[in-house]
Amino acid sequence: MAQIGQDFSEGSYDALDAIEAGAVRRFLEPLEFDCPLHVDEQVAAAHGYAGIIAPYSGLATWISAGLWNSGDEPIYAGADRNAHPRWRVNPYPTPGPDINGRTATDLQYDYVRPFAVGDKLRSCGRILTSVTPKETRVGRGAFLTWESKVVNQVDALIAEVHFGVYNYVARVRG
Question: CA 51 to CA 115: how far, in whole Å?
Fold first, then answer.
């Protein structure tokens, strides 16, 4: 709890790619989400946007740093059935004691402005905003809440992100 307010990021990380029109179309396709603001530049301009806007529901896609890129080592360091992928950028620090379990509890995006095709987003900061120690059926640990910001290539604020996790030491079943 003494670390509340501390920024655990190592600066910021850029999305792997700028938002592309084809990626927006492929994101919308399985949803059959037919909104001209996301596919027609003239319609978007007529409604006051600088270009085709990407759907807000895709923010996690547009901000992704990716797991692998050409020339990188393999994602999985071992062949173990339960092996976890390595992170290119670890967005989830683990302050406090060692843990062997983690689960996401909540995610909230507060959008400030739309993001458009051509924007390259960046995630800034990972500030610990709250810690609540708790023992649950799965184990003893703490609920942590993190805050970060998403900006575009000209540092305009796009969204504030609030993300909750439960970090814990799993109970021994027996």
Answer: 9
Tens of pLDDT, residue by residue over 28-81, are: 999 998 899 999 999 999 999 989 999 999 999 999 888 788 888 888 877 777
- Cβ atoms of 27 and 55 within 8 Å: the answer is yes
- d(C-alpha 124, C-alpha 148), whole Å: 6
Q: Is the dihedral of CA 7, 108, 93, 105 positive or negative?
A: positive
d(CA 157, CA 147): 14
Write down the pLDDT at residue 174: 64
CA distance 83 to 75: 10
Cα 5–chain centre separation: 20
**């071992």: which residue's tokens?**
78
CB burial of 131-157 (b: ≥16 within 10 Å; e: otherwise) equals beeeeeeebebbbbbbbbbbbbeeeee
- SS3 of 27-83: the string is HHHHHCCCCHHHCCHHHHHHCCCCCCECCHHHHHHHCCCCCCCCCCCCCECCCCCCC
Q: What is the mean pLDDT of residues 127-145?
A: 95
pLDDT at 93: 65
Alpha-carbon gap, residue 74 to 86, rounded angstroms: 9
